Each structure stands twice: as C-alpha cells, then as structure tokens.
C-alpha cells in the first residue's frame, strides 16, 4: 500500500488534474538571476525557439553560428602544486563557439566585454548573422545569453533550449571544445 501511495504522490506532483505536465515557467522581465538549472520557459521574446531537428538542419547547412553559454569551472586558486587537476571536458556541437559564463543574470564588466568581443569575432561584426544559443537542457544560461545578444543589437537570434543534451540524445556528432580565450 505504501508503494502505491508513493507512486500516486509522485504522479500527482508531476501532473495537473487533467494528467498534463505542469506548465513551463513564464519568461522573467529581466534576466534569470539564480537557479540556472531549472525548467525553462517555452519562449524567448524576440528570438526564435528551435528544437533539435531545426538546430541540426541549421548546423548541417552552416546557416548560423552556434554559441555555447555553459559555464566553465576554472582551476581552483591556491591548489597545491602536488594536487592533480583534471579539467572536465566539454563535448559540444561541432564548430561552436564556447563563451562560458556569459549566461549569468548579472555579468561583471570584463565578462560583458568578453561576450561582446566573442560575438563580434564569431559574426565578423555582422549583427544580422544568425546565432543559435544553447547550453544544456533546462539551463537558463543560454536563455540569458540569447536575450543579452538581442540587447546588443543582434537581430537574428535563435534559442535551442535542449542544448547538447537534446543533440546527444539524437546521436548527432559532438566534439571536445575549449573556451574562447579571454583577452
């Protein structure tokens, strides 16, 4: 009896009275400032939301620059010289530009400049060039970065909320990526 009750409680928590999944969160007016790994909205005003099939078609056609906004864990400061540090590899959509840490809700001035220069370099300063922003599924970093790109005047912004999780699930190719250098 306890197992049945537990199953029912989990089912009811995950669905509404009609048996549907709970609604996605609404878009915040500004940037998402915390809890970046949480369900994302279905929309991003001013951008085109795409699924894995559309992202793959755009990638195959080389119709856009793909921008990864996933954060990058740096080597801890003060790590003893004898300590072994193994950076976690990032496997990314081939040909992407990884601009880590640019999807936080508030950016330090240096990170803002890093984003601006990275986007200018990736687009050859063409603000009409299509950009596809992504990170992982249920990650607000790509949502924030795409929104920030639009505020910088980029006019052809796509948001791919499934990110590398959705890409890998379809067995599309991935390649190891290093972050774009900070100048």
What's the pLDDT, averaged over the residues? 89
Q: Which residue ranges are poorly predicted, with pLDDT under 50 across at least 5 consecutive positions?
A: 4-12
Helix content: 25-40%
The coarse silhouette is: globular
Name the CATH superfamily classification: Rhodanese-like domain
User: How many domains make up the 3D coordinates?
Assistant: 1
Percentage of residues in DSSP E strands: 5-15%
| Count of individual beta strands | 7
Order of strands in the sheet with the most strands? Answer: 1-6-5-2-4
- Name the assembly state: single chain
Number of helices: 5
Short structural summary:
This protein is α/β, with parallel strands linked by helices and 183 residues long.
Description:
- This protein has 183 residues and is of the alpha/beta class.
- It has helices at 2-14, 52-60, 109-123, 140-151, 163-169, and strands spanning 48-49, 65-68, 90-92, 97-98, 131-134, 157-159, 175-177.
- The model is unreliable at 4-12 (pLDDT under 50).
- The protein has five helices and seven strands; from the N terminus they run αβαβββαβαβαβ.
- Helix 4 links the parallel strand 5 (131-134) and strand 6.
- The termini are far apart.
- The strands form two sheets. A five-stranded parallel beta sheet has the order 1-6-5-2-4, covered by helices on one side. Strands 3-7 form a two-stranded antiparallel ribbon.
- The protein has one domain (23-72, 88-177): Rhodanese-like domain (Oxidized Rhodanese, domain 1, 3-Layer(aba) Sandwich), CATH 3.40.250.10.
